[in-house]
Amino acid sequence: MLDPLKKIFFWNYARNTWQWDALCVLILIFIFLTPKGWFLNGERQRLAQHQSPTLSQLFVSAEVVENAEDMARWDERVRTLTQRSDAKVVAVRKRVAQDGRLLGYEVDIR
Length: 110
Known about the structure:
By secondary structure, the chain is α+β, with helices and mostly antiparallel strands. It has helices at about 1-10, 20-35, 40-50, 70-80, and strands spanning about 55-60, 90-95, 100-110.
């Protein structure tokens, strides 16, 4: 009883045996059927759940924007800058220097 378990654990079968083939098939089944979520942990899992893979970020200088509160204008400006007609602004954040002057805006687009 212990001998076959020891052989499986230490992979002690010859390469051209049916046991070798069975172990390889079990490994392939594990690789291809294991859910991706089993290998994500902590921060990576939280980010994977809350972020869309198509979300990207753009930095726009303060000189480019006339009215930072107008979201329709942001959409138009981002479409012009990225040359993507399907671009949609998700969020806009101010970037301020340590001395208080406005550097520009971080724009999340989808």
